[in-house]
Amino acid sequence: MTSILLVEDDAAIATPLVRAIQREGFLVQHVSQGTEAVSAVGHGIDLVILDLTLPDIDGLDVCRSIRTVDERLPIVILTARSEEADVVIGLDAGADDYVTKPFRLAELLARLRVRLRLASPRYAVVQGVRVDTEAHRAWLDDKELELTPKEFDLLALLLADAGRVVSRKRIMHEIWDEHYYGSTRTLDMHISSLRKKLGDDSLNPRFITTVRGVGFRLELG
Prior knowledge:
Layout: E1 3-7, H1 11-23, E2 27-31, H2 34-40, E3 47-50, H3 59-69, E4 75-79, H4 84-92, E5 97-100, H5 105-119, E6 123-126, E7 129-132, E8 137-140, E9 143-144, H6 149-160, E10 165-167, H7 168-176, H8 185-198, E11 208-211, E12 215-218
Parallel strand pairs: 1-2, 1-3, 3-4, 4-5
Antiparallel strand pairs: 6-7, 7-8, 8-9, 10-12, 11-12
Helix pairs in contact: 2-3, 6-8
């Protein structure tokens, strides 16, 4: 399971944020000191959320220290430092994204998911279904699938969370956008089309299972 390290010394921010991230299905390790953060890196952490104002070490130095240990670990800075120069310095220190306080929870969670997807392996394979996220190509066994852009994004999202239910709300938010207010019937149509291209049966699915009232799950086999 994906593990996220939250480095935040303000309990009023950390406590509800930990709960929100856990609701997304991630494991969360929370620390309040920069030294604890650096020590945790390399022990199964998949992403770091990093405050810059810490009681022992400036967050920028923590970011630089993490980069000496792991060049690819996603780091999302979450801070009240909002000047343009601060953002530039933070990104130059090695951060992948920069979010300022106060922040919108939904937007932060979406940014975390994006960073995790970008950091995931280029190829993902489940039950012979394979996607190449860089080439934007997909296969079932040795047959390449002819997918529309939305179908590809939908398959890649389900594949990234294979074995877990992906909610309709999350799919609409990530594949369409947060401002889409139309009917979710368009999602059902895309699922139906994707099933046909996979040769799947909605009544006895091998690949995509509908979890009524919740969303969809790509089966592990």
